[in-house]
Amino acid sequence: VTTFYTEISTPATGIVEPFPFGQLALGNVQIPGTLTPPNTVFSWLLLAPVGQTVRIQLIIPQMKSEYFEVWVGCPYDWVEVRDGGEVTSPLLGRYCTPLRNHSITSSSNKMLLRFRSDSSFDSHFLVKYEFYAKEEVTTQYCQQSCPNLSPDKTCQEGDGASYRGTWLLTMSGRRCQRWDSQTPHTHIRTHQRYPSAGLQEDYCRNPDGEAAVWCYTSDPNERWDYCPVPKCLTELVDAGQEVQDMAAGECYIGRGESYRGKTALTWSGHHCQEWSSQTPYAHSYTPDKYPRADLTHNYCRNPNSGSDVRPWCYTTSAKERWNYCAIPKCLNDTSTVPSEEPCLEGKGASYRGMKNTTASGRLCQRWDSQSPHTHSRTPEAYPSSGLQENYCRNPDDSDSVWCYTTDSDKRWEYCNVPRC
Q1: In Å, how far are 13, 363, 409 from 101, measured between CA atoms?
Q2: HEC-encoded secondary structure of the chain
Q3: 3-state secondary structure of 136
Q4: Burial readout 69-93 (b: 16 or more C-beta within 10 A, e: otherwise)
Q5: Order of strands, edge to edge, in the sheet holding 40-47?
Q6: pLDDT exceeds 60 at position 257
Q7: Torsion angle of the four alpha carbons 129, 208, 315, 59, in this order, in degrees rounded to the nearest 10
Q8: Pairwise CA distance, residues 160 & 206, whole Å
Q9: What is the largest CA-CA distance in the chain?
Q10: Which segment, 244-258, 336-350, 357-371, is predicted with the most confidence on average?
Q11: Confidence of residue 255 (pLDDT cuts 50, 70, 90)
């Protein structure tokens, strides 16, 4: 295992983002997202002046691979935070789940961050740190009325239109684009058009009546996203707990077909839709069609373990039809490890997985829809091709599975499904 060590004592506030998502360099040349070096331990010592403390806000975005599994205990990739400058200092937390706005404060002027990667997958995380005098830590962050939150958290009231905090990261961990910039995304949400919206720097704001604060991102492949600033007067819900502390009853074994817990939240932070409801998404996974799957309320389940690798649900978000749920896999799972998400045999005519995004990341159009693209590949015209929902398929002997996209400027694309 390779190790790297970095000491940070200036500036007094900053960002630790060793493996950033794709951004733009001079001349609008895209820099690919930095790949995570395998089998490596990175350490960062955050060293504040004597008499001050270190406060961090930690973002771990959702892994993009359907094959990634979070196990109880974080035995693979993890981010570790220690209260002091040594690897033997008290452990404040070890994390491997998609955390949102997780705030941690040291008791002294030292905090040690450690990141460990294994030999698979490409992990990302981001830490915003600040050095503060001890008396400032308890008063700096709750300028608004946040009675149900600890003093070191800011919050947004209602839809966040009045939020004037300094959070500058999205739910996916991407840095925000400056409001006075038109790169990488051109837009009309400028200070001149919205003078009372507080469009300063690259801070999360809500100038136009969205559901919560948001920003344009610095990633040219992701135009905008909401920010993980908690709501005032409500219980703070983090999508993903510190999994080493989770009760064994809230983990799953195998592919999760036997999971009967009450988790109803996806790794991306969206609440689950009721299985008996067809709103906001119409679907065929109903309690009457799958009576043995215990499709109760909106609890995460896996009614189709032949295709799906872990518990999931449809979401209540307009931005995401479905996703896997924020439930780790049991560390003592002794079941036979099943094959992963179905792979492509030949050209993929028999593929019946639930992949519904293209190789470029575009969301697939439903096969029974004629919008935004009209077409003849319908379930009625190809009844044996498995044209369900908006899943990638190959009904017409193309080179691989594909789909029409929901992008009106891109009619169709192939999907990135591994071959057997």
Answers
A1: 16, 27, 35
A2: CEEEEEEECCCCEEEECCCCCCEECCCCCEECCCCCCCCEEEEEEEECCCCEEEEEEEECCCCCCCCCCCECCCCCCEEEEECCCCCCCCEEEEECCCCCCEEEECCCCEEEEEEEECCCCCCCCEEEEEEEEHHHHCCCCCCCCCCCCCCCCCCECCCCCCCCCCCCECCCCCEECCCCCCCCCCCCCCCCCCCCCCCCCCCCECCCCCCCCEEEECCCCCCEEECCCCECCCCCCCCCCCHHHCCHHHCECCCCCCCCCCCCEECCCCEECCCCCCCCCCCCCCCCCCHHHCCCCCCCECCCCCCCCCCEEEECCCCCCEEEECCCECCCCCCCCCCCCCCECCCCCCCCCCCCECCCCCEECCCCCCCCCCCCCCCCCCCCCCCCCCCCECCCCCCCCEEEECCCCCCEEECCCCEC
A3: helix
A4: bbbbbbebbbbbbbbbbeeebeebb
A5: 2-8, 40-47, 110-117, 78-82, 91-95
A6: yes
A7: -10
A8: 6
A9: 73
A10: 357-371
A11: confident
The owner of tokens 């490409």 is 122
Q: Which amino acid, residue 150?
A: S
Structure confidence at residue 407 as a pLDDT band (50, 70, 90): confident
Size of the chain in residues: 420
What the block records as the tokens of 202 is: 């690259």
